[in-house]
Design brief:
heterodimer, A: alpha/beta, Rossmann fold, six-stranded mixed sheet, four-stranded antiparallel sheet, 7 helices, B: alpha+beta, 2 domains, 13 helices, 17% strand, binds adenosine-5'-triphosphate, binds magnesium ion
């Protein structure tokens, strides 16, 4: 369902050009669980941004569900993000003045879902993530693990088919990190969600069925099958 | 995004940033309040003046000696010096015009008035019986000057209520002989207390026949002829008729100024309306200042909320939606400020009415409308730059902003 062909991403820094991605080819099947590893600066986040339509490749083609999305205009790309893609970030990115429930509700507001349905879906989502008693709390009244769970609720509320998680446990201690990764994996298995996780933690990376190793803007290794 | 959710979302942002919103609200409301209060004061002054004129009668035509090119307020209205005299005979001739219902020759001066050892100086008005009808005076006691030959002094006079009180106290004034300058006259009536009247304080005046007043003041000619047209429609024809009559009597020379009540009122009206627009405009500048403040605070808000904007984009908000969101915030805020300003204006009006109850304070609807419209336009105009900046942010860069 995801097809990247010869994707390049160059950044101009002063009079130099940084090649963050060099001719990346990547196919991801529906329902795959994929981990993305590699040294700092190897282009993992850049690849995630392109997968999530937050960034445009300098060259190459991106096909999502059989449709070329590289040339879509801003509104059409926004619609794809709204309907098909969920993000989980290292720094949570919750809106500080909104409650947990209001944060989780945001994608539904943007999709124009009516308030009654929004309320029900948010309540159900927070409940499934064990956050029912925190729904009225602001982010600064939540622990790191709880914040990331709110962010997961927000990412999943629109029922996307792809979840992109860029170092989702990077800001968490080991136990809440484990909790978060288990929640994400549960969603993957129960919803048939396509899951791409960037991580620096080899142990976490090994959990994925498919492990991609990037170096210097290129895919060096692409291992399938259970590693353990 | 549903259009219904847009204002709710904007309102939520504003409510949850009370300090920032409060500041912008304050600036906007002060701007709107000052526009409304200042134009209301200007408008009230205009009303006040036109009410004054209306109390003089709306069919009124005034003839003064001397020619002034401008219609309306000319120097001869105020200056006593006359290039060519107006006489009682002129007034009598004018009175024969079929367009006029009442004509009164008038002379004005000051005189010492005394009775029973009490003496004071009072404004003296020489006139005829017609003046009461022209100025719509009512009498508290007795009668006004009798009809009769204006060239003759009937030896009677009428005094204002305040003058009566000062000279006679609790005693009866009617029928008493009053000494005015070096003449004596018999009091036939007391003028009722008037609200107000332009030009002369009716409460202190002595009114005597114009012939007697001319003799007393030792003047050869009158100051003015006051006349009432038979109807409002006849005003122009009546004015023209007066000009022709006097031209014929003055050897073909047009040496008088004929001013209608309307023309005079229109002049004052123009001056005061211009004044109102001016103060309104100056107050309007404070609205622009408020707009600039809103713009700056919104710009700061956009840079503080950069990560939030990046997030909204990541969640699937298109550029136009971000633009709309910020525009609605800015205009919502300025409209809220405008309505708050109106509320402040209402309170200010109550305060002004409390301290100056005589002022006929009105609300110029146009000023309220203009203030609200300006607030809306200001909010939109000054909201555009921050909103465009927000909408144009690159999502990846915005998300990594801290
Ligand atoms: N906006 C930018 N402007 C210039 N260079 C950039 C920009 N974004 C990324 N880069 C460069 O592109 C390369 C890849 O960056 P990227 O963020 O994708 O790395 P990463 O693999 O996610 O690293 P990390 O593990 O540290 O998050 C780096 O060399 C980085 O400096
Ligand atoms: Mg990264």
């Amino acid at each position: 369902m995801i097809k990247l062909r010869e994707i390049e991403r160059d950044f101009a820094v002063g009079d130099q050009v940084v090649h963050a991605l060099r001719k990346v080819d990547l196919d991801i099947q529906e329902g795959e669980y994929l981990s993305l590893m590699g040294p700092s600066g190897s282009g993992k986040s850049t690849l995630m941004h392109i997968l999530g339509l937050l960034d445009h490749p300098t060259a190459g083609a991106y096909e999502l569900d059989g449709r070329n999305v590289t040339g879509l205009d801003d509104a059409a790309q926004a619609a794809v993000r709204r309907n098909k893609i969920g993000f989980v970030f290292q720094f949570f990115h919750l809106v500080p003045y909104l409650t947990a429930a209001e944060n989780a509700e945001l994608p539904l507001v943007l999709s124009g879902i009516d308030p009654a349905e929004r309320r029900d879906r948010v309540a159900a989502s927070l409940a499934s993530l064990g956050l029912s008693d925190r729904s009225g709390h602001r982010p600064d009244q939540l622990s790191g693990g709880q914040r990331q769970r709110v962010a997961i609720a927000r990412a999943m509320i629109s029922k996307p088919s792809v979840l992109l998680a860029d170092e989702p446990t990077g800001n968490l201690d080991r136990s809440s990190g484990n909790e978060v990764i288990h929640l994400i994996e549960d969603l993957h298995t129960s919803h048939g969600l396509t899951l791409v996780v960037v991580t620096h933690d080899p142990e976490m990376g090994e959990r994925a069925q498919r492990r991609i190793h990037m170096i210097d803007g290129q895919i060096r290794e692409d291992n399938r099958g259970s590693a353990a | 995004m549903n259009l219904r959710d847009l204002p709710a979302m904007a309102a939520r942002v504003l409510v949850r940033h009370p300090a920032r919103s409060g500041l912008m609200l304050l600036a906007m409301s002060i701007g709107v309040a000052s526009v409304v209060v200042l134009t209301s004061l200007g408008e009230s002054a205009r009303r006040f003046v036109s009410d004054e004129f209306a109390s003089l009668g709306t069919h009124l035509i005034m003839v003064s000696p001397g020619r002034t090119e401008t219609s309306g307020v000319g120097p001869s209205m105020f200056a006593g010096d006359t290039p060519r005299d107006l006489t009682i005979a002129d007034a009598t001739a004018v009175a024969r015009s079929r367009y006029l219902s009442d004509v009164a020759p008038m002379v004005m001066g000051q005189a010492n008035v005394s009775w029973g050892g009490r003496e004071r100086e009072a404004p003296l008005l020489g006139a005829t019986a017609s003046l009461r009808r022209i100025r719509r005076w009512t009498l508290a006691q007795g009668r006004f000057l009798p009809d009769g030959d204006p060239e003759r002094d009937s030896g009677m006079c009428v005094i204002g209520a305040k003058l009566r009180k000062e000279l006679f106290g609790p005693r009866r004034a009617l029928g008493e002989w009053l000494k005015v300058g070096d003449r004596r006259c018999r009091i036939t009536g007391i003028l009722a207390e008037e609200g107000r009247s332009i030009g002369m304080d009716v409460e202190e005046v002595v009114v005597m026949p114009v012939a007697g007043a001319l003799a007393l003041l030792n003047r050869p000619s009158i100051n003015r002829i006051m006349a009432n047209a038979r109807s409002h429609e006849l005003m122009d024809r009546a004015s023209e008729d007066i000009r022709q009559i006097l031209k014929k009597r003055h050897q073909g020379e047009e040496d008088v100024t004929v001013v209608t009540q309307d023309a005079l009122l229109a002049t004052f009206d123009r001056i005061l309306a211009a004044l109102t627009y001016t103060v309104g405009g100056i107050a309007g500048i404070s609205l622009i200042v408020a707009g600039i403040l809103i713009m700056n605070v919104m710009l700061v808000s956009v840079s503080q909320r950069t990560a939030e904007i990046g997030l909204l984009k990541a969640l699937g908000a298109p550029r136009e939606e971000i633009l709309r969101l910020f525009l609605v915030e800015a205009t919502g805020l300025s409209m809220a400020g405008a309505f708050l300003g109106l509320a402040i204006g209402v309170l200010a009006r109550l305060a002004i009415l409390y301290f100056y109850p005589v002022l006929p304070l009105t609300w110029p609807i146009w000023a309220i409308g203009a203030a609200l419209a300006t607030a809306l336009v200001v909010g939109l105009a000054f909201g555009v730059i921050p909103a465009r900046r927000a909408a144009g942010l690159d999502p990846v860069a915005a998300l990594s902003h801290h």
